[in-house]
Structures
1.
Amino acid sequence: MRLVVIGGVAAGTKAASRAKRTRPDLEVTVYQAEPEPSISECGLPYLLSGTVASREDLVSRTPERFAEKGVEVKVRHRVEELDAEGKTLAVRDLETGRLFEDRYDRLVISTGAKAILLPVPGANLEGVYPLRFLTDADRILSHAKVHQPRSALVVGGGYIGLEVAENLLARGLEVSLVEAADRVALSYGEEVAEKVGAHLEEKGVRLFTGISVEEFLPDGEGRVRAARLGDGRELEAGLVVAGVGVKPEVGLAQAAGVKLGQTGAIAVNRRLETNLPDVWAAGDCAESINLVTGEPAWHPLGDTANQMGRVAGTNAVLSEGGDDEALEFPGTLGTGVFKVFDLAVGKTGLSERAAREAGLDAVTVGLEAPSRAGYYPGGEPVFLKLIAERGTGRLLGAESVGAVDGGSADKQIDVSATALWGRLTVGDLVNLDLAYAPPFGPALSPVIQAATVLSGKV
Amino acid sequence: MRLVVIGGVAAGTKAASRAKRTRPDLEVTVYQAEPEPSISECGLPYLLSGTVASREDLVSRTPERFAEKGVEVKVRHRVEELDAEGKTLAVRDLETGRLFEDRYDRLVISTGAKAILLPVPGANLEGVYPLRFLTDADRILSHAKVHQPRSALVVGGGYIGLEVAENLLARGLEVSLVEAADRVALSYGEEVAEKVGAHLEEKGVRLFTGISVEEFLPDGEGRVRAARLGDGRELEAGLVVAGVGVKPEVGLAQAAGVKLGQTGAIAVNRRLETNLPDVWAAGDCAESINLVTGEPAWHPLGDTANQMGRVAGTNAVLSEGGDDEALEFPGTLGTGVFKVFDLAVGKTGLSERAAREAGLDAVTVGLEAPSRAGYYPGGEPVFLKLIAERGTGRLLGAESVGAVDGGSADKQIDVSATALWGRLTVGDLVNLDLAYAPPFGPALSPVIQAATVLSGKV
């Protein structure tokens, strides 16, 4: 049996490895357009500051390492056409330009997501880059070294933009951040967004919200020198990193007749099968189900991609009639966390606004608790907001902010995410038996405290 | 309506406060034999080193503060008899010695737990103390100041003994620890116990396991000077802290006809009602249900006591026919965490041995993972063991050890505890959507990694 995997980052390499382990006689090839496979994309912002010292640190496995396990990974190879009926692929070797045909018995599509480019004049100037691939980081670092810009502009106040702002500032640049919406961290509620915005300014990031970049302006040599905002102001910037979002990379699949879902990503069932026979999809290119709403969702994150890759890789090599061994990927909660300077910021499930948009009657409570017993030294405040459904008391979501060191926002979010997975109610959370000792939290965890307040409101 | 609460630490003060808030016209009195109410007993070890600077820091609310909320707290008052039929109490004012009668309409028993004393000669020598109440800490500190012992002996390798050993060493004493069982941290599996034992020795605690103290030996002035072990060896010790365990304080209740459960603590139903009308019990004196086995359990911990107090306090003041508003306390998981020097050690649910003893067919996996992405600086290894039921795949328990700073053992345990509460299987955990970013963990959380390995074994 021959398995081909298109795309070799988190989902693709996981699917290939898992398939080979499941079925040692398998012939498996991964095609990856970028020069490295298995890149830890979440680490890219930290290359910009040197927090992660070397780009090689972000390549968790080389093609040689995959080869040792019997998995062929062909980098700098782009699949340009897919014939799902004939089960063939047209593949371009990007080194030589040669186009050749390959065939498969089973196929996993894990083409990932691509950066949304800014649709404004000057967005293709030298010095204006997205940060999606390791090669983007290479270009940013090379530009910074060669041209030594004094100031940088980050466009987009989502988690990537925020991480990039921190890391460019740590590099010694003056950093401005422009976000078209009225606040950064838009997928969070206002309480969290305000804390993040205030922290950015405190750390020295110039923050512009509620305004767009209209144009990038060149210097005399075709490199970016400034951005013009919607109100006419010019912001000097010898380097621009645009983190305005990503979208699923589905062109190849769509052209081959693979059905997309309502989010624009590839539609799959719980086994991660697409509408085409013998074709699975996993990772950032694939849709999943939001487990809180039951509706299709798209959460392009590395850990989820890894989990989906395991399911797709296993299922793709099942024998006929091997249904009993099929794995299922039930869905996602939209859980995430990021660090911005000294703050850890995380969420899971629905924000208050997302709950309302899903037609749910949401009740919320936000509170600040210490991350250790009040009398134990070194505690840091942690803010937690819980969102629950009126009437049923079902937990719908959580958001948290606290200090990276000594705070516990990531813990609050992981507890809440696990509670969402188990469909717990605030009544459950009130009595939840969590681990307490003075160095690790207040006697009643912030989750329990918040649930106790909420239990009087639902 | 008059509510009397016997015992004013975590469960008692919570029950009283909650009852008063629920029913503002309530008359409520708490009797507390110790000189302070509302003591954070979990903080006591940290008084010994000065990590917590002042004993007042551990009194979260004074009687005056309770009085402001309409809750009468009478300290240094011991309830000596309970007539549940006549609904009267005989109360001793420990200051004056006077005995008087009180009456109640509703009663909450929250008499807590008491230290088990060592049944060996010399256990009542000056310089040999348990550590259960704030007054015990006072005695230990006073003895240490006045007599300046050079060396201390801790008896018992449970979490209190371990915390005490750390804090006495931090105070500058030479510390030995004797544990009769073959290892410390006995409620944990061997992997964890070995890590803790090695860490103790690395930090300079002299560790004696598998051997008992036979006798304490006096100096010429009636103070302890040494302990004689089972093999005849003498250990010099000018101060002994015995942390060999606690047992429920149920004498008063039992004499009044309150039924005990099979653990020896007071039997209660989910509403925390005892067998006697209008009598509830909560906190360390009361039994609960182990939610993993469904069997009676006794988990005397401050956070659980607090949660039980809320339930008992609410239910104790319900009007006739107010059943709809009754709260329930479903049970406990035996979750706990403690710090010993640089290690955080936690568990939830059943250990491998406890699972076997409960007649469950347990499958386990233990692994070490980094607490941050491998390429992100500052990560510390965290060990996690998951225990699951063969066949069903249901999670039964978890144990974890990691660095206090930068580790994440407490997070692994809280996620596992929440999963136990939701009765999740390892199949659920494999796909769990937890919060990932490089500064907060590896791409797949240790819980997910361990569950993935386990899913191939159950």
2.
Amino acid sequence: MRFMHLDILIAGLPRENYHERMRTIRLVVEYDGTDYCGWQIQSNGPSVQAVLEEAIRRLTGENARVRGASRTDSGVHARGQVACFSTGSEIPAERFCQALNSRLPGDVAVREAVEVCSDFDPRREARRKQYSYTIWNHPARPALARRFAWHVKLPLDVSAMEDAAERLVGTRDFASFANAECRTSGVETVRTIDRSVWVHEGARLQYLVEGRSFLYNRVRNIVGTLVDVGSGRFAPADMESILAARDRTAAGQGAPPHGLCLEWIRYG
Amino acid sequence: MRFMHLDILIAGLPRENYHERMRTIRLVVEYDGTDYCGWQIQSNGPSVQAVLEEAIRRLTGENARVRGASRTDSGVHARGQVACFSTGSEIPAERFCQALNSRLPGDVAVREAVEVCSDFDPRREARRKQYSYTIWNHPARPALARRFAWHVKLPLDVSAMEDAAERLVGTRDFASFANAECRTSGVETVRTIDRSVWVHEGARLQYLVEGRSFLYNRVRNIVGTLVDVGSGRFAPADMESILAARDRTAAGQGAPPHGLCLEWIRYG
């Protein structure tokens, strides 16, 4: 009787080799950030991290912690966020994509799932990231692009914006584009931008920026300032004095979150 | 006393030249059809026509009837629907765009407003229309494109689909792609397709089709059949026998509405 009871108990416990078989799964995640308070778990609303953790819990029964490469803000989108978690389940890595998608809401989708080394750090190991920022530059507001583009009514001088964008390439002190939190907490504000261009077709203007790491809110502060160049508030050459000021108030407005999208992250 | 009373009455009535001054305003309308039962007013849910008529009523106080060029189905989108209405108001035509947009929900927007002749008929006078149909061809479902693309998981042979699409160009009897309503009500099923191509980039396949007029559900029935070519159910050359059959059951599946978008309509 005692032995039978023990057998049942053991069957209900993790197998002995459970922890030896823990694997780390890396996900590429796409999401429409409109209805989320951002990537990171917050007390004030649903987060992408929370819905992923809930889907993993429903799939594996495990309370896994999902770590993301970029803490995208409320309303910001991603086509290629990278995240990872540890699991003791025996589900093949490539099956996680389909299995998690059937347990996630429609506005979050896993595009890829692969097994990586257990010490993989999605944030620190990122070698290059691309963000896009989309503007709808037309007197009439957009309907189809309303969740994904900042509506700027006044006509913008795109060539001035292209000129200004080019001037940001290189290793520079971006303190003027950093929010107060960065500056007061002693975060290093010298970063490198590898690419900074505008692409445009009709009313749609898209800014693409690439670098290894980004200061919090930097892309939105850069885009707002480039729009101020496009509207004539600043000249393209003013980007030099704005950078040199190392002061947020020297730069222009911040752009709203819904135009921003984390496009991809490269490792290795 | 009697004259004063009469003056007040006249001031509250439409001016005598009211009907001489009735104008017809042509709108280009963009909408995300996800949350609508289609263009046309229906008893079972909100329609794009109804929200436009309500916005006009709130702006002008008039109960205008809005006539559209295309009766897009439930869930179908438009970037360039054309519609018109008559008004006795003195609002300059170009002001209707901004004034209506501030009274419309976010998923419907007026892109242009111009005055046209009072006998303008947006449906009959259309010279050429373009529809697009977007497919997301990837094992994982999309999140950002979920409202605007049909998710087809199995890999599709795009060159076979391109070959099949080309075979639809010209003046042909499209009875095999018409729904039962068309065939039984004696609607002319001979129509002309001027352009029929696929454009693709990564997982995104987009079918573009142009013609003067389209049978109800024809684009969705064509796209479903082209996907059946891409999956190997039909060969590209089968398009000839499908057209010759003049029978809906000879063609393939119908595609869901949310991939379809009325791109533009040309007049004159």
